[in-house]
Amino acid sequence: MEIYDLGDLIKKLRKQHNMSQQQLAARLHITDAMVSRYESNISVPPFDTLCSIAGIFNVSMDDLCGMKHQGMLSAHGLTESQTETVRALIESYRFKNAQTGRQLTQEQFAVLGQIVAELTK
Predict the structure, then answer these.
(1) What SS3 state is found at 68?
(2) To the nearest whole percent, how much of the chain has pLDDT over 90?
(3) pLDDT tens digit sequence for 62-120
(4) Would you list the DSSP string of 6-65?
(5) Which carries the bigger pLDDT value, residue 85 or residue 23?
(6) Residue 1 lies in a domain
(7) What is the number of structural domains in the chain?
(8) How many CB atoms lie within 10 A of CB 53?
């Protein structure tokens, strides 16, 4: 069983983005000491800070809060047009799979995730 650790997740995301505690603190308009407190699980970020962290690292709130949802894609950062393109692609996959009686595979979701990542560059 995997144990959820918000502080560890924030630290991993920060390091994956090659960001120092000071840089993250500046983007969140808080002190680097507060970032350290979050990463050490001494303090829990308030909701608005969690939303900002999710936006900075382009992750969903579900991911940030340890929720596992298979098949969910984040459209954060996409324009309305890009979001509609991804929705149309998803619906196309669903329609084809409904005709054959299959559900979307992990591979199909991975491809859709890559498309979302490319569209957000």
Answers:
(1) coil
(2) 36
(3) 888 877 655 556 666 777 877 777 777 777 766 655 555 556 666 666 777 777 666 66
(4) HHHHHHHHHHHTT--HHHHHHHHTS-HHHHHHHHTTSS---HHHHHHHHHHHT--HHHHT
(5) 23
(6) no
(7) 2
(8) 23
- Tell me, yes or no, whether 13 and 60 share the same domain: yes
Distance from C-alpha of 35 to C-alpha of 75, rounded to nearest angstrom: 26
User: Other CB atoms closer than 10 Å to residue 66's CB: what's the count?
Assistant: 12
Q: How far apart are the first and last CA of the chain?
A: 34
Print the domain residue range for 91. 80-119
Tell whether pTM > 0.70: no
| Residue 38 contacts residue 100 (beta carbons within 8 Å) | no
Do 11 and 45 share a structural domain?
A: yes
Q: Which residues contact 85 (CB under 8 A, 6 or more apart)?
A: 119
Rounded CA separation 75/86 (Å): 8
